[in-house]
Design brief:
Length: 365
């Protein structure tokens, strides 16, 4: 297949404000597609992720900070010509990049006018998306009244959740009557400072259980601050920055205290009972639906959760072996780890493995 091109473009951002979840998901997808001899190139407005992408063996183009959406579309057009790209996968926080949904929708329309096959990860919003494939891989999608277009395919629910490969290989949590460690992790950035709130609460407990504190790459939390908060804590603790063995750390823990990001799907997959503090009111509403599956204990949005609620939830769950066992079993039923393969199978192979041809481009300003 000498005149076949198999490059596709992944558009993703990551930062302290956005977090790292989108990037981690895209790297997993890129690795999977690479195993199918399909090469990915990344496009981002986040210069701080450049080396991470390169270290994983992928090419990346960083857009200048002052780029307009028209500039970005022109960059994509040039990459299409240079790399013979026919597919673009979008995993961007459109609230951060675009002024409103209409601007984002116009962006999607322009991508399709470039003859690109558009695959986009989206949130729970009831919008008339114009992508070829829309992926909303979360619990609660059954409650969305989507404006489905006839030429748009929707992949909905956790069967399409992208689970990192390490989670499919790790041993599930062995629930013990007495827990030996608690995992505290709030994703890549923890912009809301939930880690500090949890540690402040833990510092006043009498549990004395070992803590594993995971600090993401975009989080601005110093070791000195953590040590100060835990200066009177009766148990041991370790601080792990940018953990590269998260599945193993989870499988060896008894309880996790996490935020309302994508981590809850990972703790569910390994059967780790979790206490969740939501990043905001919007996440809290979505979490109420997730919590109905009895895999987590949801305390509410961070601005309404107090120190007493955190300590009481951790203490009660640590002592309730039967509850933890039920949560663990329920979690393992929710995410099976085959999401990437299902997504891959939904993309027409003729647009991934495309023949060279002549294409014309017109960008709507």
């Amino acid at each position: 297949m000498n005149n076949t091109c198999n490059n596709y473009l992944i558009r993703v951002d990551a930062s302290k404000k956005i977090g790292a979840g989108h990037l981690i998901r895209c790297l997993e997808i890129a690795d999977f597609f690479k195993s199918k001899n399909i090469n990915a190139m990344f496009l981002s407005r986040s210069g701080q992720i450049e080396q991470q992408i390169i270290n994983r063996g992928f090419e990346i183009k960083i857009l200048p900070e002052n780029s307009t959406i028209a500039d970005e579309l022109n960059s994509i057009k040039l990459l299409m010509i240079e790399k013979k790209i026919k597919v673009i996968l979008l995993d961007i926080n459109n609230y951060n990049t675009f002024k409103d949904f209409n601007a984002y929708n116009l962006y999607l329309e322009n991508l399709r006018k470039l003859s690109l096959f558009v695959v986009s990860f989206e949130d729970f919003q009831d919008y008339p998306y114009t992508s070829d494939i829309v992926i909303i891989p979360y619990f609660g999608t059954k409650n969305i009244k989507l404006h489905k277009k006839s030429d748009c395919k929707y992949l909905l629910g956790p069967k399409y959740f992208v689970l990192r490969e390490e989670f499919s290989k790790v041993k599930p949590v062995l629930v013990r009557k007495k827990i030996e460690s608690i995992l505290v992790t709030m994703g890549g950035s923890d912009a809301e400072g939930i880690t500090l709130k949890v540690l402040k609460a833990m510092g006043s407990t009498e549990l004395g259980i070992s803590l594993k504190i995971i600090i993401g790459g975009f989080a601005q939390i110093s070791d000195a601050v953590i040590k100060n908060l835990l200066s009177f804590y009766k148990g041991s603790y370790s601080i792990i920055r940018e953990a590269n063995n998260m599945a193993e750390l989870m499988s060896e823990s008894g309880i996790a205290v996490i935020n309302s990001g994508l981590t809850k799907y990972e703790t569910s997959a390994v059967g780790l009972p979790s206490i969740i503090i939501s990043n905001n009111e919007y996440h809290s509403e979505l979490m109420n639906d997730f919590a109905k599956y009895d895999t987590v204990c949801h305390l509410g949005p961070v601005n309404k959760v107090n120190k007493h609620q955190i300590t009481e939830a951790i203490t009660c769950l640590a002592k309730d072996y039967k509850k933890r066992l039920q949560m663990s079993e329920a979690g393992k039923l929710l995410v099976d780890g085959n999401g990437i393969e299902r997504i891959f199978n939904e993309i027409p192979k003729e647009v991934i493995y495309v023949q060279k041809n002549t294409m014309s481009y017109k960008i709507q300003q």
